[in-house]
Amino acid sequence: MGYFSGKVVWITGASSGIGEALAKAFADQGSRLVLYARRVAELQRVKTSLNLTDENCLILPMDLTDLSGASQMVTEVVLKFGRIDILVNNGGISQRALTIDTAIETDREIMEVNFFGAIILTKLVLPVMVKQESGNIVVISSVAGKFGFYFRSAYSASKHALHGFYESLRMEVYKYNIKVLLVCPGKIRTNISVNALKGDGAKFNKMDQGQLDGMPADECAEKILSGIRRGKYELLIGGKEVMAVRIKQFFPNFFADFIRKQKME
């Protein structure tokens, strides 16, 4: 029996990218899965591709911009599985627009999905974990949660906000044996740039070269599972781009000049 065998794992944004890769990684370890995203057909595709059954998988379709029914979903998960061991707040949306060209409505949508979508669900799941005196909360942030970059002002702000919230939460729930892991992926091979929002809220619909050349999502997922197993507080995952976080930490002035000269994409 492995570390994740039998664990109830709730993954948001499970229909593609890192979320889908995590679903596969947990399923391979014998976890019971709650798959959560907007697109029911895609969630069903993931369930079928992983040979999951109704006994060990629950599909919950919902948009992170409208969590009015999320409380009932938490009840549904507990009634089915009896507990929630791991919550992975993975669902999110990126941005590809200059600050001056981004409508405030687009800023709000990005913050609603990336920040409020995560914390609302966390607050609903938290009493379950407190009662069972155990749990893992995993938050998929970004290297953009460590520093800003061109075309990412609202996205970066939403990820920075996650760090402030979950680092505070980590201290508060330590006594309940609840662990909080912040994951900061760099360039991972997903459709995050394709689905990113332009300034007017329309889809960007282009694949960044950085994403195309990035780490495979399944490799990223395996590193996340390893981080959970080892009780890590934070993970930086990616290629050489994650070194920028360390450069900023120790050489902030040099970093500011260095990052400003990088290619905008």
- CATH architecture descriptor name: 3-Layer(aba) Sandwich
Shape: globular
Major sheet description: 7 strands, parallel
Question: Assembly state here?
Answer: single chain
Assign a percent range to the helix content. Answer: 40-55%
CATH superfamily: NAD(P)-binding Rossmann-like Domain
The total number of structural domains is: 1
Number of strands: 9
CATH class: Alpha Beta
Mean pLDDT: 96
Strand content: 15-25%
> What integer value in Å does the Rg equal?
18 Å
Number of helices: 9
Quick structural overview:
The protein is an alpha/beta fold. The chain has helices at residues 17-28, 40-49, 70-81, 104-132, 153-173, 209-212, 217-229, 243-250, 252-260; strands at 8-12, 32-37, 57-61, 86-89, 135-140, 178-185, 188-189, 215-216, 234-237. The model has no long low-confidence stretch (mean pLDDT 96).
Please provide a written account of the structure.
There is one protein chain. The protein has helices spanning about 15-30, 40-50, 70-80, 105-130, 155-175, 210, 215-230, 245-250, 250-260, and strands spanning about 10, 30-35, 55-60, 85-90, 135-140, 180-185, 190, 215, 235. It is of the alpha/beta class. The mean pLDDT is about 95. Helix 4 links the parallel strand 4 (about 85-90) and strand 5. The chain has one domain (about 10-260): Rossmann fold (3-Layer(aba) Sandwich), CATH 3.40.50.
Question: Topology of this structure?
Answer:
Layout: E1 8-12, H1 17-28, E2 32-37, H2 40-49, E3 57-61, H3 70-81, E4 86-89, H4 104-132, E5 135-140, H5 153-173, E6 178-185, E7 188-189, H6 209-212, E8 215-216, H7 217-229, E9 234-237, H8 243-250, H9 252-260
Parallel strand pairs: 1-2, 1-4, 2-3, 4-5, 5-6, 6-9, 7-8
